[in-house]
Every structure is written in structure tokens, then in C-alpha cells.
């Protein structure tokens, strides 16, 4: 329709308007221009872009809000990761301390085993000394009995010799020496045994106390380690949950951003199309306005020519 109307205007302009109907042609041309402009023109005032602006503003607000929420979730994940690392470090320290205490306990157990073996050796030594003492006493009694049997016989020997040795005194002296030696060995053995036994008992008591304290400490450390393990597992579970929430949120935001980008692209295409249509319509309007201006000038020229011809005819009539 626009091309046909422009072709008609061009034909009228090339052929010229009839002189008898200049005013009517001008009016008809103005009416057609107004009708075409009213039909095809789409001024800016006829289009309401406020709804698009509101949608864009709402989408921007959503993007800002989701960005802030995303940053908050990332901060929570970082805090959970730091807490998990802290608990992991505490757990490693407690585990190292637990292993150190267990190593000390194993060392104390070895010391206790050594003390037990030393105690057994000392008991064997005491038992051996007691047996040796009994053996010495038995030999002494047997020798004493044999000497007594010899001295109790009725043998009389007369010799012209020096006075003999008093066997009873000699035996008593030997007996006293053996008894003194046995008592000395017994006292030394008992003293050594008591000394080593006291030392051993003191060491055993100290080791038992230390072992009990170490067992209590190990129990407490084990309880603490179990608590830390449970807390670490809870932190790891919370971290995994937050990471899953973050991933889900990021996917949702990506989907929403994709939809928003599609809407923005569509709105931009519409705005470009509207701008192109407006520029095209403006160019056509300017073209029509130029044609209208030229036609008005030609019509005015025709009016002047007609007025001039009318004046000549009037003069000729007056001359006649």
C-alpha cells in the first residue's frame, strides 16, 4: 500500500496536476497523506514500554538478591571448611598424643616385665642361698655328730708326746665360724633381697600409679578423640550439604540467568525492531513531506499562472 501510494504521488508529480482542479487535488493529497500517516505511523506515544522497564528492573533486583545469597552460601561453605580443617588439626594432635601415651605405656609395661623378671631372679637367688644355708647346716651337724662319736669312745692311748689338740674346742670354733659365716651370708642375702625388693616394690608402685594415670589419660583422650571424630563427621556432613546446596543454587541461578538473558535478548530485539521501524517510517514521512512541499509549491505556481491568465483574459475583454 505504501509503495502504491508513493508511485501514485510520483506519477502525479511527473504529469502535473490539472489546472482546473488544483485546490481539490491539493486537498485530496493532504487527506491521503494524513490517512496513510494515521494508518502506518507508530509514534512513540502509542507504545508503552514501562512494563518492560519494570520487568527489567525486577530481574535486576532478583539478580542482585541471588548474588548476595550466593555470596552468603559461599561464606558459610568457607567457614565450614575452616572449621573442618581446625577439627582435623585437633584430631591429628590428639591422635599423636594418644600414640605417644600408648608408646609410654608400652615402655612402662616392658619395665614392669623386666622388674618382674628381676624379682623372680632375686627370689631364685634367695631360694638358692637358703638351700645352701641348709646344706651347710646339715654338713655342720653331720661333722659335729661324727666328731662327737669319735670323742665318746673308750679308747685310751698313752703316748709320750706333746699335749694333743682339744678337738671339742676345735669343733666348737669351726661350728661358730660356720654359724657366723652362715648368719653373715643370710643377713647379707636378706639385706640385699630386702633392698632390691623395696626398690622393686617402689618401682612397681610408681609404675602402677603411672600406668593407672596413663590409662585414665588414654581413656580421656580416647573419649575426646571419639567426640572430635563425631564433630568432624558432623562438620564434613554439613560441608557436603552446604556444597550440595551451593551447587543446586548455582544451577538454579544459571537457569534463571539464562531465562533472564533470553528475555533481555528478546526485548533488545524488539527495541531494535521498533527503532528500525521508527527510522523507516520517519524516512518515509520525510519523503512524503518533501513531496507534499513540492506539490504545494507547484500548486501555488499554478495558482499564480491561473491568476495571471485570468488577468490577461479580463484585459482582452475590456479591450474588446
TrEMBL record:
Recorded coiled-coil stretches: 105-139, 167-298
Q: In which organism is this protein found?
A: Pseudonaja textilis (Eastern brown snake)
Q: Which InterPro entries match?
A: IF_conserved, IF_rod_dom, Keratin_I
What protein does this entry describe?
IF rod domain-containing protein
PROSITE patterns, from UniProt? IF_ROD_1, IF_ROD_2
A GO CC term assigned to this protein in UniProt: intermediate filament
Keywords of the record, alphabetical order, are:
Coiled coil, Intermediate filament, Keratin
| Family indicated by similarity | Belongs to the intermediate filament family.
Please give one Gene Ontology molecular function term for this protein. structural molecule activity
* PANTHER family given in the database record: INTERMEDIATE FILAMENT, KERATIN, TYPE I CYTOSKELETAL 24
Q: Which GO terms describe its biological process?
A: epithelial cell differentiation; intermediate filament organization
Gene name, per UniProt, is: LOC113450735
Gene3D superfamilies (alphabetical): 1.20.5.170, Single helix bin, Vasodilator-stimulated phosphoprotein
A Pfam family hit: Filament
Q: What positions does the domain IF rod occupy?
A: 1-313
- Lineage from the top down? Eukaryota, Metazoa, Chordata, Craniata, Vertebrata
